[in-house]
Amino acid sequence: MPFSLIWLPQVLRAEGLRVAEQPGWVDRGRGPMGAVAGVMCHHTATKDRDRNMPTLRVLTEGRSDLPGPLAQLGLGRDGTYYVIAAGRCNHAGEGVWQGITGNSRFIGIEAENSGAADDAWNPVQLDAYHRGVAAILRHLRLPVERVCGHKEYAPGRKPDPSLDMAQFRQIVADILAGTAQRRPLIAPTNGTRPTLSRERPGDRAAVKALQEALIAKNFTLVADGLFGAATEAKVRAFQRANDLLADGIVGPATWQALGLGAP
Q: What residues have CB less than 8 Å from 196, skipping those under 6 apart?
């Protein structure tokens, strides 16, 4: 039987966000939600910085000490929302925010980030975080004060997310008010360099040129002309470091950021 939060993908997509629905999400949950009264923000605290959403399986299935699902939504480093569950999830635990408590009252979002001081938040991911929360609040007709960090809900027990939540709420408020500006995109070039990806690697000469450009940017990589997992990981890392959508696809913006516009 489907749970109540089946509107999540539509609301996020309407905000222009990338959404990946996980198999079985409609019927997944620890039980039904109550009247949703807020959104709780988390970070995953994973040490894996090379993959987009390495905690997805744990968020879906849970841990040995805590059964899943552990959040309704996962947010990858490239700004993709992974829809995990439409029902209640084990993410909040004991605590209170604005007089509200319990997993049945909060939608949980787990954003992929280690929380370490040297793991700066990817601007693309952070923009998606703000806009996703704003979209949910708009749909539920809730004020921005109903957004909290886990660390605010359970102070002293939880440290996440590693964000200034007052600033986070202000940006969400600006989005809801229509005064926030979207992040500017790097203008595409008029060149004819091919779009490359692991699924569509293109010719080896183009891939080798890509690899050599990454090596010149101090990424450790073998310039063998093969677009495999290692090259994709380095492309994502470069994109994250240069305020690009970290999707592993090398299009005009990535070529330009590498200093290789028109050939």
A: 202, 206, 207, 210, 227, 249, 250
